[in-house]
Amino acid sequence: MASPTFTFNPNLYLKFSHQTQSNNFDWTPCSWRKEHQRPLEFHFPLASLARRDRIRRASSGCNMQSAAFLPRLPQHHSHLCRSDNFLVSHHSTWTCPKWKLAASRIAVTRMSPPASTSHSLSSETSLAALAPLEAILFDIDGTLCDSDPIHYYAFREMLQEVGFNGGIPITEEFFVKKISGMHNEELCHVLFPDWEIQKASKFMEDKEEMFQRLASEKLEPVKGLPKLLKWIEGQGMRRAAVTNAPRPNAELILSLLGLNDFFETLVIGSECERAKPFPHPYLKALEVLGVSEKHAFVFEDSVSGTKAGVAAGMPVVALGTRNPEKLLTEAGAAFVIMDFLDPKLWKALDELEKDAGVTGIKT
């Protein structure tokens, strides 16, 4: 019989000191899930240094050998992390009354699901929990502008030229599932696993040059963006742009949209420890702005970016400009809008106004 999928409170921590040639695990938040016909598994994200330091200061415990869990047990938490964002651990066996760690994975037995199984903020009105709202973080491609059709065209033409997929043009569905939201280094391995890295990197460079030429002629902002930016400026909110795009692409788009001076910082995924879907780019943006994740939210359009925002502890408002609403919701989006004039967005901002005395422009 199929088992329900759920995610555990990330406030439960486990010290993991095992070291291998390629990985060095330490104190990190963990989540767990129950999958179809599989035992429960712990999943460990790669925490930022700042978060890891906070955990070290706040926690005392022991390593894997003593098998001690910290006494921070389930409680309501509005930003539960989805286990899809994390790596599965694989280490030695130990046992204690209710827990069993098995070789090759950490399996949990005789444990009931937590009372709350929500993975993120469940509706637009939940943004009111962020009051006072201090910052809004934006993805760039597909969020500030509908650039995905340009990327799709460039990839389709160039991949066909090199004989990818037997010379058959890629579909938009393939683009959404395998390419959109990914950073170029990862795409080199996804698209060209048998190519030398230098050859794959050169392909990506040529593709970006093609994108930049096309974007200079065809790029348009997402509908309603000027109104939203006016609202943000009126509140004096902090703002950052966070993207997996190469820096030249990101800077070009911001320039074409006239937003060079709007954002306080531009964070590039490849310049962080890990790019999206890991939370590092968004955590870095919060650090630069000096804002807590409890008082900020994210605008995203991709599954990868949505997972990154949720993993960083923030609610994500996703734009369904290209990606299906179902995929974005499954990735953890609080709700999905079609553009920045969507009534759902302004309803949420009105809730913030009521709860925190925010005075912004009206719809």
From TrEMBL:
Instruction: Fetch the InterPro entries from UniProt.
Output: Beta-PGM-like, HAD-like_sf, HAD-SF_hydro_IA, HAD_2, HAD_sf, PGP-like_dom2
Q: Known Pfam families for this protein?
A: HAD_2 (PF13419)
Tell me the keywords, alphabetical order.
Answer: Carbohydrate metabolism, Magnesium, Metal-binding
What SUPFAM superfamilies does the annotation carry? HAD-like
Q: Which PANTHER family match?
A: 6-PHOSPHOGLUCONATE PHOSPHATASE, HEXITOL PHOSPHATASE B
NCBIfam families assigned to the protein according to its UniProt record, in alphabetical order = HAD-SF-IA-v3 (TIGR01509)
UniProt-recorded name of the protein: Haloacid dehalogenase-like hydrolase domain-containing protein Sgpp
Source organism (scientific name): Eucalyptus grandis
